[in-house]
Specification:
Number of helices of chain B: 14
Strand order of the largest sheet of chain B: 2-1-3
Radius of gyration of chain B: 21 Å
Structural class of chain A: mainly alpha
Number of strands of chain A: 0
Strand content of chain A: under 5%
Helix content of chain B: over 70%
Strand content of chain B: under 5%
Largest sheet of chain B: 3 strands, antiparallel
Order of helices and strands of chain B: HEHHHHHHHHHEHHHEH
Oligomer: heterodimer
Number of strands of chain B: 3
Largest interface: A-B, 51 and 53 residues
Structural class of chain B: mainly alpha
Distance between the termini of chain B: 45 Å
Chain lengths: ~425, ~290
């Protein structure tokens, strides 16, 4: 009896527990539609297989493992957080889904993007202009601080170069500036960035251009607009910026003169070279000459100008006498070429230079009588001497040769 | 008789023709040194004047860079100045030891321009136009005298300015800055004049004109054939014959080695000069 009674009790208890469990389960299911059904797993059931493709044959596969390691995976976001028009309850979902709207979460960045050169190009119908995923990726988006991120400092050059270093795309999309990576990669910034102790401090694309606020350089608000270049470069090169501001170019700039050169005029924007490389030193002379053309022309008439034209830089270039960033007019006593400082400036190379030596005019002009009258007369004299001698003997020679030929044609006879 | 006396003509008649001394050994050595150092200065200096041309950059690199070109330029210039000084010393010796001051200053053996030179030139130009017979010359023609004095002028202008530029600290002690400006101007301009003149006019007058083409080795061998002496310098020939000095001047035909030296060294110089002229013309035109 006891035994049977006991078993009755046991059976009843079991039923109770079972019933309670069923109620609990039912309640739970009613409160949370799928507590045990993982949305992402549901999606990956199909999209997780590597060869999964849509009707058009395009891959719609997703690397689940990469997603888990992504910033969105870290936050345990479900696929439907971005693909909001998909419901795991109604599968299969339609073939065509709405584009993912990043602004659902990243409203500020997307709003800013719309005003950028990329955003405006997109809005204007440019189908290849970079959008969120072109820089950040799709399912494997990492935090910028993550070394594996496309937007990590070390990887940005490669990320931007997907378009701006893609020769074919540069041509078909007519990207401004041409193949930027080809210019940037071997620049001083590009080389520093490529590795070594200072790689982390070296500027990459976004350091000058910004990230979500990249504007065309023609836009006044752009960090790389002429109006802002000295400040953009000066963000790192503070000492140079201070010297530039004190120099004549910086002074005129502060007075609102838009024509003065800024950093990129001499150093270029992307191909910036070490200042001590001969190729740069030779090239920058021509840059000075873009504005100071008459001085470039008279410089080229001097030994200094001829030797640098041949590609050698052991003689004075413009900056050797005028200094590189804080050049001042000769009338300014602080100028390296002022009457007070000129001899010292010459002595940087010519140790034995005297006041007489330093009164040599490095820009004497054979066309400017007022500036150098004696030089002008000497040039005129030499011109006429050359013209006179060559004219006289040129004619003499031609007549002589003509006579010899005429006599030869007429046959040998006395004369 | 004005039949062209070409070198091949002279060479084939070596065995039979008579030869006369025209240049003594010191003169030939000085000319050879002057020639080599002149070309040396030209090749090392021209890249500066035509620095913008690709050939100038290539030539500067070929010379080992502008520093090394500068050393070659100064070495050549120093030798050239030594040649000039030696020549002056030889002239002074001729005046004092040879007691020939008068002959230096006047007469057929003098380089001083004389009335006769003006007449020679007038007759020569008349002949160019077919208005008279071809004139016959004495020992030194007017164009040879021009060449000779051009070296003096060049020495003063290029040599003087070159020294100024070479030793600016020393000359800066008593010369103002504009002197260096003018020195660098005239150094280049006069160099162009000298190079342009020697490699065209002097080459034509001395070597390239049809009668001499492609070159006259007289300045290397020192010997002139009777054929040429009588053909071009009949006045000298007649004068020497009349005074009996002709026999003293007679010499053995130029040796094979002397002629070979003339052809190789002189030919190289001619070729280099022509190349330089082509480069200059190219640079001026393009």
């Amino acid at each position: 009896m006891l035994r049977s009674g006991r078993s009755i009790t046991l059976a009843a208890t079991t039923r109770w527990v079972g019933a309670l469990l069923c109620i609990a389960l039912a309640t739970a299911v009613a409160a949370k539609p799928a507590p045990e059904v993982d949305v992402n797993e549901t999606c990956l059931a199909c999209h997780g297989s590597a060869g999964f493709s849509n009707a058009a044959g395009q891959s719609v596969a997703v690397d689940g493992a990469a997603f888990v390691k992504s910033v969105h995976g870290e936050l345990n976001l479900e696929c439907t957080a971005c693909h909001a028009d998909v419901s795991p309850a109604k599968l299969p979902h339609p073939e065509k889904l709405a584009p993912v709207d990043c602004s659902t979460c990243h409203a500020e960045q997307v709003k800013q993007y719309a005003t950028t050169v990329h955003g405006m190009a997109r809005a204007g119908g440019n189908a290849v202009a970079a959008t969120c995923t072109d820089c950040h990726g799709l399912h494997d988006i990492r935090r910028a601080s993550d070394p594996a991120s496309r937007t990590n400092h070390a990887n940005l050059e490669a990320t931007c170069s997907k378009c701006h270093g893609n020769e074919a795309l540069v041509k078909t999309a007519n990207l401004p500036g041409g193949n930027i990576d080809r210019q940037f990669h071997d620049s001083i910034h590009g080389r520093l960035l490529a590795g070594g102790a200072r790689a982390a401090d070296a500027p990459t694309c976004t350091s000058c251009h910004g990230a979500h606020n990249i504007l065309a350089p023609t836009e006044v608000a752009s960090r790389v607009n002429r109006a802002h270049i000295p400040e953009t470069c000066g963000g790192c090169h503070q000492a140079i910026y201070a010297r530039f501001s004190k120099g004549q170019h910086g002074r005129l700039r502060n007075e609102g003169n838009p024509g003065v050169p800024v950093c990129t005029d001499c150093h270029t924007a992307h191909q910036i070279q070490r200042h001590d490389l001969p190729a740069f030193q030779v090239a920058v002379i021509e840059q000075c000459g873009n504005c100071h053309n008459e001085y470039l022309s008279t410089y080229r008439d001097t030994f200094h100008g001829q030797v640098t034209k041949l590609g050698y830089t052991s003689v004075a270039t413009c900056a050797s006498c005028h200094s590189a960033h804080d050049m001042l007019p000769a009338s300014d006593p602080n100028s390296t070429i002022s009457a007070q400082n000129r001899v010292e400036t010459c002595r940087k190379c010519h140790a034995g230079a005297s006041a007489n030596f330093a009164s040599f005019d490095p820009h004497a002009s054979r066309h400017d009588k007022a500036r150098d009258p004696l030089y002008w007369y000497a040039a005129k004299f030499m011109d006429w001497l050359l013209i006179g001698v060559f004219a006289f003997f040129g004619i003499h020679t031609v007549l002589w040769l003509g006579r010899l030929w005429i006599d030869k044609l007429r046959g040998p006879k006395g004369g | 008789m004005a039949t062209p006396a070409s070198i091949s003509d002279a060479a084939t008649t070596t065995a039979t023709a008579r030869w006369y001394r025209r240049f003594a050994l010191p003169e030939r050595v000085l000319h050879a040194l002057l020639m080599v150092t002149f070309i040396g200065c030209a090749l090392t200096g021209l890249p500066l004047i035509f620095a913008a041309k690709p050939w100038a950059e290539a030539l500067a690199h070929l010379l080992g860079g502008f520093e090394s070109a500068g050393i070659i330029h100064r070495v050549c210039a120093s030798i050239m100045i030594a040649v000039f000084v030696t020549h002056i010393a030889l002239v002074i010796r001729r005046a004092i030891v040879g007691k020939d001051l008068l002959g230096i200053l006047w007469g057929p053996d003098s380089m001083v321009p004389q009335w006769r030179d003006a007449i020679d030139m007038y007759r020569h130009v008349r002949w160019f136009f077919g208005l008279g017979p071809r004139p016959q010359f004495d020992r030194w023609t007017y164009w040879e005298k021009f060449d000779y004095w051009a070296v003096f002028w060049g020495m003063a202008i290029i040599g003087g300015s070159g020294l100024l530029l070479w030793f600016p600290f020393f000359f800066g002690n008593f010369l103002p800055g504009w002197a260096f400006n003018i020195a660098s101007l005239v150094h280049g301009e006069e160099a162009l004049l000298a190079v342009g003149f020697i490699f065209t006019i002097h080459f034509f007058n001395g070597h390239l004109r049809p009668e001499k083409f492609p070159m006259d080795t007289v300045v290397f061998t020192g010997r002139i054939s009777e054929h040429e002496l009588r053909g071009e310098r009949a006045v000298e020939y007649a004068r020497l014959q009349a005074t009996g000095a002709l026999a003293q001047k007679e010499a053995a035909p130029p040796s094979f080695s002397a002629r070979a030296f003339g052809w190789i060294v002189g030919g190289t110089a001619l070729a280099l000069g022509v190349v330089v002229i082509l480069l200059i013309l190219y640079s001026v035109v393009f």
